[in-house]
Write a structure and sequence with these properties.
3-stranded antiparallel β-sheet, 31% helix, binds 2-amino-2-deoxy-6-O-phosphono-alpha-D-glucopyranose
Length: 242
């Protein structure tokens, strides 16, 4: 595991963006695995800036998002579909038909999950971006998720619902309780994994990821078993590492 420590959120965003930009330049037909949440917002800003200034092209790239809330219409302000378009896709030259996000409003969610898993078998992800939940979740794979788990319907823990309430007028009753998420096993199929974390509230999870026991109780600890992982973490997120 390669650990890159940086000063703060801004530096994390720049450094991680640089890694993605290099990867896209080296392989214009790259399959990117993308993430949502507060962590990658600054990174995506840097990708957009680079696209405007240097014209790094995504027209031959494909993107596959980790997860999507269930039960919200696709155009709802808080779907990950909306998030990705507003923060990245609307501002670069990726083709709409090359953008894949699980459909959270599908009439048959388990079929949607199975189809997404099949899609990922046919399109191995070259570079998977991850954030991390305060409880060590990756994607929406909460503590206790099986390490060999595939794309599936998952239930959000009260901790995650609480953490995400800030995007829903601070009202946890408005946060969906379920999502469709790549499984831990799905995520582990990626060739390279880039995980970013910033802030004190991630320090415990980062310590568990790097130095803890590999355990399904802390889903991110599975990354100790992956051959090519890069962490870009800021001083606060790294503050509990020995
Ligand atoms: C969300 C997402 C994860 C994300 C995590 C951390 O629930 N499903 O993909 O990594 O929580 O979010 P944030 O970056 O906002 O702290």
């Amino acid at each position: 595991m390669k650990i890159i420590k940086v000063k703060n959120y801004e530096e994390m965003s720049k450094k991680a963006a640089k890694i993605i930009i290099e990867a896209v330049k080296n392989n214009p037909e790259i399959n990117l695995g993308l993430a949502t949440g507060g962590s990658p917002v600054g990174l995506y800003e840097n990708l957009v800036k680079d696209y405007k200034e240097n014209a790094t092209s995504y027209k031959n790239a494909k993107s596959f998002n980790l997860d999507e809330y269930m039960g919200l219409p696709q155009d709802h302000a808080q779907t990950y579909y909306t998030f990705m378009h507003e923060n990245l896709f609307n501002h670069i030259d990726i083709k709409e038909e090359n953008i894949y996000i699980p459909k959270g409003d599908s009439a048959n969610a388990s079929e949607t999950a199975n189809e997404y898993e099949e899609l990922l078998k046919e399109n191995q992800i070259d570079l998977q971006l991850l954030g991390i939940g305060t409880n060590g979740h990756i994607g929406f794979n909460e503590p206790g998720s099986k390490f060999d788990g595939k794309t599936d319907i998952v239930a959000l823990t009260p901790e995650t619902i609480q953490a995400n309430a800030r995007y829903f007028e601070g009202n946890h009753d408005l946060v969906p309780t379920k999502a469709i998420s790549m499984g831990v096993g799905t995520i582990m199929q990626a060739k390279t994994i880039l995980l970013i974390a910033s802030g004190k509230n991630k320090a415990e999870a980062i310590k568990g990821l790097v130095e803890g026991q590999v355990s399904e109780n802390l889903p991110a600890s599975v990354l100790q078993n992956h051959a090519d992982v890069i962490l870009v973490i800021d001083e606060e997120a790294a503050s509990l590492l020995s």
